[in-house]
């Protein structure tokens, strides 16, 4: 088959089949599977191709893989599955609770698809997730050589009638759980009689050291007036994405 026809046909196949099977068929097929044009064609087919990025992409195969893998790595970010996938590191006061939007003295999220949130109490309440990158499809060589951007986002809000405190910490960890990079901004303290608006916090990890194998995400806080019940910070719609 002519090379252009083979590119068109092979670009219809899943990436894993191309790399694990098709490359082994013959010298010609291995050559075609490694062509930039094949991976660019796959990006075009699946809606990942953006013309003004054309010259800035050095490896279309890796670009395709990253686009194909891209999703929120935080599981159960909006409390739809109770506390499943979350580790409750601190659960003091009247403990963590899940409430429906907008909640008492609260406001709706900008994203209408978010219907629930986690809420803290008068004692410290923190919860976390540990993401194993290899399990999510991000192989070691990719993380060490390409070091794609890691984007962290979280949403938090207070009740109108009570002050509270919010904290976020995200760590990039090695295979031995050594901290290679860390995002830990100053705690946010919200006063009583606030606007109860939902706010987003965001951070992008770039140019981090080689060796990242895990991402550890932790957030939480408490109310600042020590009222019994659930008057503390509210959190939802957390996300970690790895971009091309």
TrEMBL record:
GO MF, any single term: ubiquitin protein ligase activity
Pfam families reported in the protein's UniProt record: F-box-like, FBA
Keywords: Ubl conjugation pathway
Electron transport listed as a keyword: no
InterPro entries named in the record: F-box-assoc_dom, F-box-like_dom_sf, F-box_dom, F-box_only, Galactose-bd-like_sf
Ranges for domain FBA: 63-244
SMART domains registered for this protein in UniProt: FBA, FBOX
Keyword check for Transport: no
GO biological process: ERAD pathway; glycoprotein catabolic process; SCF-dependent proteasomal ubiquitin-dependent protein catabolic process
Domain F-box: 1-42
Protein name: F-box only protein 6
